[in-house]
Amino acid sequence: MSREVFKEDRIFIISWGVFIGIMTLLLLGVVAVPLLEFWGAAGIADFLYRAYHLSCHQLPSRSWFICGKKLGVCIRCFATYVFFIPVGVALFIRPLRTWIARRSFLRFVLPVWLGSLSPLLIDGLLQLVTPWESTNFLRFVTGGLAGAGTALLLGYLVLRFTQKVEASLR
After folding, report:
1. CA separation for the pair 169, 4 (Å, rounded)
2. What is the DSSP secondary-structure string of 64-127?
3. What total number of domains does the chain contain?
4. pLDDT per residue over 61-92, tens digit each?
5. At 65, is the secondary structure helix, strand, or coil?
6. Beta bridge partners of 65
7. How many C-beta neighbours within 10 Å does residue 65 have?
8. Which of 19, 103, 151, 160 could form a disulfide with 88 if both were Cys (CB 3.0 to 4.6 A apart)?
9. pLDDT by residue (tens digit) across 89-138?
């Protein structure tokens, strides 16, 4: 990678890298909860489990288990983290980042994000207002779509913001 490419995108690369790092740590924490509990570190596992409860219902019937212990979040939230990370990492690829930066927010990014959230919203609302119960596979798919779409949306917003910051520094 040439110095010019890094110099041009350095604020995005650093800020997005920190954000992807945080998301990766969150995902590792989700998997660590049942392992810590299994290995006897129940206090740490309980702390993490309570922290994840702030954003997830953690219902056992909608969760996966490792070593007989429940993950820190439900399947849908887990899939959101899992799919967010590779899509977010893909934004480090310069041609993809350049292509996305040239797209219109209202004509491309927002519709893609809303389209990726629609299955999750439809599935959740159907479960809320009807007796129909979703499958864990469907929860994983809808959560994954939402995670991928959210990574695209946030990546686009961070990219556009950092481009304006870079331009103001020149």
Report:
1. 15
2. -EETTEE-SS-HHHHHHHHHHHHHHHHTTSHHHHHHHHTS-IIIIIHHHHHHHHHHHHHHHHHH
3. 1
4. 999 999 999 999 999 999 999 999 999 999 99
5. strand
6. 70
7. 10
8. 151
9. 999 998 998 899 898 988 999 999 999 999 999 998 999 899 989 999 99
